[in-house]
Amino acid sequence: MATKRFHIDRTETSPEIDLDLERGAIEFVGRSLPSNSEQFFARVHRWIDEYLQEPREETTVNMRLDYLDTSSSKHLFNIFQRLEAASERGRKVHVNWHYEQGDDEMAETGKDYQSFFRIDFNFIEVDSLF
Which residue from 6, 12, 85, 117 has the fewest beta carbons nearer than 10 Å? Predict the structure, then answer.
């Protein structure tokens, strides 16, 4: 069974990531352009893979990113792919894609992900992400 909680603190170049097994919640907050994205996201992929062995009935993903670079975008794609597999096995997966008012680029990024996956995306425009 996965650890109950996994947390990475936010820095200027990497997002805060909270993965909570008890609640079935995954949160990304900040900006994502880590210097070594493979190393940074390897921990996240391992935890999600472990969590998805016995996922909750519902998993909620809260995205509050104001920027993500190309390599981070690829890692998020892989994360959504894993979550879609859980959805195809009858689990509910909800993605709440928060974006700042007027940030059409981040809103569009979320809509691009939505077009690739058969999981529930909600788009939430906010005054401030954090």
Answer: 12
**Residue partners of 56: CB distance under 8 A and separation at least 6:** 21, 23, 24, 91
Q: Cβ(106)–Cβ(99) under 8 Å? A: yes
pLDDT level of residue 2 (50, 70, 90 thresholds) = very low
> Domain count of the chain?
1
Residue 107 structural domain: 19-30+39-51+58-126
Does a structural domain hold residue 7?
A: no
Count of other CB atoms within 10 angstroms of residue 8? 19
**Model pTM greater than 0.90?**
yes
